[in-house]
């Protein structure tokens, strides 16, 4: 049985958390479009913590997709002063862990880290608790 490719979005208004889950072969441009359509539907998207679950994603977000996301996010936010939000990227892809820190500098006002497990990512997003391996100086963090 094949897995149907999809992106699901769950919004927790009480805790100001958006969870994106990507399953199957989904193009990076479609991921960016879904993130931006979700943000554009909110009156103040910069107030939300974010979790992007890529564990079942059978693709890779290219640098051009990440740059597109950065440009579109900046256009949406403009010069507003935003509160620091927490974000988590959940992935088991070693390449994602290795390259995402290099794009982190392009996203300001966000404290975003990569995790192997959904529980660790949720603990960070909801409670601000980093696992020991992330709390060290080892840069396994990324921006989106």
Task: Give a brief description.
The protein is of the alpha/beta class.
Largest sheet: 5 strands, mixed
**Please, what is the average pLDDT?**
83
Could you tell me the number of beta strands? Answer: 5
Per CATH, the superfamily is STAS domain
- Structural class of the helices, strands and pairings? alpha/beta
* Domain module count: 1
Considering DSSP H and I runs of 4 or more, what fraction of the residues is helical?
25-40%
Tally of individual helices: 5
- Name of the level-1 CATH class: Alpha Beta
Which shape, going by the Cα principal axes? globular
H/E topology pattern: EEHEHEHEHH
CATH level 3 topology: Transcription Regulator spoIIAA
N/C terminus separation:
32 Å
Instruction: Tell me what the CATH architecture is.
Output: 2-Layer Sandwich
How are the SSEs placed, and which strands pair?
Elements lengths: L5 E7 L4 E8 L3 H13 L8 E9 L5 H15 L7 E6 L3 H11 L5 E6 L2 H10 L4 H4 L9
Parallel strand pairs: 2-3, 3-4, 4-5
Antiparallel strand pairs: 1-2
Helix pairs in contact: 1-2
Structure commentary:
It contains 5 helices and 5 strands, in the order ββαβαβαβαα. It has 144 residues and is of the alpha/beta class. The chain has a single domain, classed as STAS domain (Transcription Regulator spoIIAA, 2-Layer Sandwich). β3 (49-57), α2 and β4 form a beta-alpha-beta unit. α1 (28-40) packs parallel to α2. It starts with 5 loop residues before the first strand and ends in a 9-residue tail after the last helix. Residues 136-144 have low confidence and may be disordered.
């Amino acid at each position: 049985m094949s897995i149907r490719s999809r992106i699901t979005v769950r919004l927790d208004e009480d805790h100001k958390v958006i969870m994106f889950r990507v399953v199957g072969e989904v193009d990076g441009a479609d991921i960016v479009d879904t993130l931006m359509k979700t943000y554009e539907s909110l009156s103040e998207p910069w107030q939300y913590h974010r979790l992007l679950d890529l564990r079942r994603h059978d693709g890779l977000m290219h640098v051009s997709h990440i740059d597109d996301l950065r440009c579109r996010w900046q256009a949406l936010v403009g010069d507003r002063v935003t509160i620091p939000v927490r974000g988590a990227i959940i992935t088991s892809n070693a390449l994602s862990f290795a390259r995402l820190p290099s794009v982190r500098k392009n996203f300001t006002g966000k404290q975003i880290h990569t995790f192997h497990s959904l529980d660790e990512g949720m603990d960070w997003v909801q409670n601000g608790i980093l696992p020991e391996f992330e709390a060290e100086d080892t840069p396994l963090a990324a921006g989106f």
